[in-house]
Amino acid sequence: MHKKFKGFLSWVVFALLSISSIMGHTAVFSIVPKAGSSLPTQVTLGSSVTALYTVTNTTGRAHVGNYLKYLPPNTNQVTVDGMYSDLCGATFSLASKASCTLELRVTGPVNGTDPNPQHHLFACLGGCTTCCAGTNFSLNVKDSPIYTAVFDAGSSGTRLSFFKVVPSKGGYPIIDKIGTYDDNLPGVPDDDGINNFLNDDGSIKLPLGEPLPANCPGTSGLGQLDVEPCVLQPLLIELNRAIVAQNSSNPGLNLTRSQVKVELFATAGMRTEDRLNGGNKSTADILEYYAQMKDYVAQLGYDVGEFKTINGNREEGVWTWVNLNDYYYNSFGGNPTVSPSVRYPVGDFEVGGSSMQIAFPTNASPSDADNVYLVAINGYTFNVYSKTFLGLGGDDARKYVKAYGYSSNNGGIDCYASTATPSNTKEKSGIQLYPSDQVHLPEIYPFPANTGYLDTPWTLVSVNELLLVGWPTYNDITCSNMYNTIVNQVTSLNRNSYGTNNEGANATMSSFRDKLQSSNSPFVGIDNFFYTSDDLEYSPSTGFNPAVFQQNLQNYCTGSVATNFNAQSVCPNGNFMNTYLFGPSGLFTGSSATFAGVLNPANPAGDTVLTWARGYLLLKYAN
Known about the structure:
The chain is of the alpha+beta class. Among the domains are: 2-141, Immunoglobulins (Immunoglobulin-like, Sandwich); 146-309, ATPase, nucleotide binding domain (Nucleotidyltransferase, domain 5), CATH 3.30.420.40. It has helices at residues 2-24, 194-198, 227-249, 268-271, 283-299, 312-329, 394-402, 476-491, 509-516, 528-535, 546-557, 565-582, 612-622; strands at 29-33, 42-43, 49-57, 63-70, 75-78, 91-94, 99-106, 122-124, 132-133, 142-143, 146-154, 157-166, 174-181, 190-191, 204-205, 260-266, 303-309, 347-351, 355-362, 372-377, 380-390, 431-432, 460-461, 523-527, 595-598. It has a 6-stranded mixed beta sheet with strand order 20-21-19-18-24-25. A 5-stranded mixed beta sheet has the order 13-12-11-16-17. A 4-stranded antiparallel beta sheet has the order 1-3-7-5, with no helix packed on it. Helix 7 (394-402) packs across helix 8 (476-491). Residues 1-26 have low confidence and may be disordered.
């Protein structure tokens, strides 16, 4: 009742001031939109629009020292503009019936029905604080929607998502996904990551009978200059179609390419190309590659933003965490899609192809050195621990198992069902073997010509060196032992050290297990962990029972598994998940932290909703 009474009182004051100002129009000022102009109704974030009024002295005598008592929020008076010789100054003099042009710069939204009278335009006579007049033509300006498209250039493929965003400074931005375009569409090839094009080893796959994209020279052995015609061009064609469709369904929109900001963010695949991470490319090489792609998109008429490799700790991990908790838990109070009420956020394991990101809310203070980052959206603030591990994505971990033993490797036959063959388990690309001098024994990659240490840059093992050798028979213990060694070694690599830029202390499974125990919430698994659980017909979002998961995995892998790559990969992927979370060195073995379950990255309609791209936009346009 108290709040209602205060609101009513504000309206009474506003009404009285409005009445006095209306009466004052004949005795003080007339303030109307300038002839030939119209008041703005929208403003784009980061820019400004102009509002022009004519202020007329309606009294019977001249007045000096006149001034503006109040202005709406996000507006300021322009007092110098050569276009108008009669511009009203900070103070201005007007003879009887004379007028001046009032120019206002509007930099953000203005509520034309704001109950606070001090949030409206009022002009007063010089020397008088109550001889004032308002206007019957209040500013009412909303944020203009921003149209933006984001390339998600992952280690196993590239997709493009198109969004309409209405920013909200300090509030909750409205983010509508217009569409996501990938290899599920006709004419869009399935690429194996833009990083492979940088090494002249790019490849694409097309459905039988579908022609190559224009100017794309082939399907394999593709180089740096082929990434535009073979990967970017088909996706941009889909974007252009979406722009045309927007204009068709919204008459008067007239959206052009120049009004659509396009950005490209690459993840773990491109991280592995850097010499610091075992690749053979310098920073200059990588920057040149991004500049090449950026120039290509700009030449097509789009507004281009950043083209870069994103940081797995500060960016990818945090953005994924933000979007997950916004969609499933409404943790920022603006998205009741799944949860009508605001719920406290959870921690997450996001498992991609080459890397894994783990993030969770914590009481620790923000610190780059400690991997803790501030997240503030719509008045909700959290400190988030976020850590990426390059090489612990589902694909890379599986390839490390296949390469176990190097020259004596058998392709990981103990991790596969009896229906596995070299052809139905063949990977899309090889793997870089990490140097033995960065890890503890056992030495699982003995290199014949240089026993004990692999080459720098790290030795690349080709696809054909990862093929199955012998007759596969799933053995959960043997497979788990290999995965256990690999997860311990990969965790401790220099490129996975603590700190935003991985320049701190070396990580270990033991030390990271301790860090997870500082989480304020239970954990969930998404992406590879969800799909693996779903294939095993055990994918609860809460109450996850490791014993049930392990039994389903055993039953699946000792049964008759379908003879396609995805079905065959469930066994090694499931063993990886079980070993990493619940095995001898598992993160939840002997820990107070809890694993609640897995969450579907797609909504009931099949549309992907868990993407770091939306988390990026949510954080960006809320602040």
